Amino acid sequence: HPDTHVLPLNGSREGLFSAIFPARDRKPEIVRPTVLIPNPFYQVYAAAAAVAGAAPTFLASTPQAGFLPALEAIDDAALQRTVAFYLCSPSNPEGAVASRDYLKRVIGLARRHDFLLFADECYSEIYTDEPPPGALEVAMEETASLANVVAFQSLSKRSGLPGLRSGFVAGDPAF
Question: Is the pTM of this model over 0.90?
Answer without folding.
Answer: yes
